[in-house]
Design a protein that fits this description.
This is MerR family DNA-binding transcriptional regulator. 12% of the residues are buried. The chain contains six helices and three strands, in the order H-E-H-H-E-E-H-H-H. The structure holds a DNA duplex (9 and 8 nucleotides).
Length: 142
DNA sequence: ATTCTAACA
DNA sequence: TGTTAGCA
């Protein structure tokens, strides 16, 4: 899945002004550079440039990590972006957290509904299966 | 060797 | 998002 590099503290990386190339981040998070550029196109990350080349700093790395976490939780990139925009607009504001809670609620409800749907199908399968077995047994006797 | 943009799948 | 082409 995903492993995290915890050598020096992140704060140390920040004060040192550590930067990363797109390939380094891709390797760290086990994704392709293409995916990282895609997230940028979607407005989720905005690395600075050195000429044409993207220069990723700790802030970008953190955002990328959050994007991937959002994906794991089943959120759309657009939803992760909404959260980022809220944070950028009102840092330290409760709006972002309320938004997140709302998203979690929606996501959870969707998953629970899916769970119910799955259970319904499973039960139906069981019913059909029993019926089929019964028919075979009757044929065996007759 | 690596990254980038753009376009198509 | 993956892939590929043509650059720098």
């Amino acid at each position: 899945m995903e492993e995290i590099h915890t050598d020096m503290s992140d704060t140390a990386d920040i004060m040192k002004g550590t930067t990363y190339t797109i390939s380094e981040l891709a390797k760290e998070f086990d994704i392709t550079p293409r995916a990282i550029r895609f997230y940028e196109d979607q407005g989720l990350i905005s690395p600075s440039r050195k000429g044409r080349r993207r220069v990723y700093r700790e802030r970008d790395r953190v955002r990328l990590k959050l994007v991937l976490r959002g994906k794991r939780l089943g959120f759309a990139l657009s939803e992760v972006k909404e959260m980022f925009d809220l944070y950028d607009t009102a840092p330290g504001e409760t709006a972002q957290l309320r938004f997140l809670l709302g998203k979690i609620k929606d996501r959870r409800e969707m998953l629970e509904q899916q769970r119910q749907d799955i259970e319904a199908v499973l039960h139906e399968m069981e019913s059909v299966e029993k019926r089929a077995v019964t028919v075979l047994e009757e044929m065996g006797e007759g």
